[in-house]
Design goal:
The structure holds two protein chains of two kinds.
Chain A: E1 4-11, E2 28-31, E3 38-48, E4 55-65, E5 77-82, E6 95-97, E7 105-118, E8 123-127, E9 134-137, E10 145-150, E11 159-167
Chain B: E1 9-14, H1 23-31, E2 44-51, E3 58-60, E4 71-72, E5 77-78, H2 81-90, H3 96-112
Antiparallel strand pairs in B: 1-2, 2-3, 4-5
Classes of the chains: A mainly beta, B alpha+beta.
């Protein structure tokens, strides 16, 4: 299948503890497009855009509460966008989540990757090996949504990010 | 015999143009149980990663590690410390892809019956 991306070109992560509602435009999440849809996350990248030192702990984790109602990618969020222009449109495209009525909450036990970075010039990139990608299934907790958000502490700063995935 | 290195992902933390993170910056996160690397100013850190085959948590490989890495001989993959504890107690191997397959099957059946998707809360 084709590879797709969701992204946010400029947002300031809002630090929250596990199992606490995210703040709109303070995170980026990927939610499945239907109850049976599966996707594999292939790559995550974060680029620091801040103008002063801003240590932050960005966490890729499954969400124990998923976004519901009025889901959008947020102010600067985009996607999903096909990486290859010849990709066929998806019948039920996965959702880029940056804002919603019911806010997602990061699971306290299903953390996938902890990425400490300084948003003042820091670059972080993780790429999965073939066959070792992170799976997303359906659109309900706790397998249907994976988020990239800031954990409590530090002073999160302006960041851009993308998540590349492959729905199938 | 194929090497287990074929399962390794790649992590880059590039702080060549920024202040990076000091040990003091990450101390509070580590105290909260988060496994955070402190890559200081001017440094670029590249590391292999493994995705635990039983829970899909990503483990950043420490090249200085002297303990053997946790390995499940049934699925021929590396697993994380938490899953190794469980495997040592139960001797069970349940790959995460199997969990996804079974739940996907279950959701498809529920959809055919007009029921909502099954919700699963892992440990």
């Amino acid at each position: 299948m084709a590879r797709w991306a969701i992204s946010n070109k400029s947002f300031t992560p809002v630090a929250v503890a596990d199992t606490t509602a995210f703040t709109d435009n303070g995170y980026l999440a990927l939610q499945g497009g239907s109850s049976t849809q599966r996707s594999n996350i292939l790559e995550v990248q974060l680029n620091g855009l801040a103008g002063a030192s801003t240590p932050q702990l960005m966490e890729l984790a499954r969400d124990s509460t998923v976004a519901v109602t009025s889901i959008t990618a947020g102010t600067n969020g985009r996607g999903p966008v096909a990486l290859d222009p010849s990709s066929a449109a998806l019948a039920a495209p996965p959702l880029a989540v940056g804002a919603s009525t019911t806010k997602p909450q990061r699971s306290s036990t299903l953390s996938l990757l902890e990425l400490g970075m300084n948003a003042f010039g820091g670059i972080v990139r993780w790429v999965a090996a073939v066959g070792e990608e992170i799976g997303v299934l359906g659109n309900t907790a706790s397998l249907g949504e994976v988020s990239l958000s800031a954990f409590t502490g530090g002073t999160p700063g302006l960041t851009s990010t993308h998540i590349i995935f492959e729905p199938f | 015999m194929p090497s287990l290195k074929r399962h390794e992902g790649y992590l880059l933390i590039d702080n060549r143009d920024g202040p990076g993170l000091s040990e003091a910056d990450v101390a509070a996160w580590r105290a909260a149980g988060k496994d955070v690397l402190a890559v200081p100013e001017g440094k670029k850190h590249e590391a292999g990663t493994i995705t635990c085959h039983h829970c899909q948590a990503v483990v950043i490989l420490n090249p200085a590690r002297t303990r053997s890495r946790n390995y499940c001989p049934k699925c021929d993959h590396y697993i994380c410390d938490t899953c190794e504890q469980r495997r040592a107690q139960t001797l069970e191997c349940v790959p995460f892809k199997q969990v996804l397959d079974e739940l996907q099957e279950q959701n498809a059946r529920r959809e055919q019956l007009g029921l909502g998707a099954a919700s699963i809360l892992l440990p």
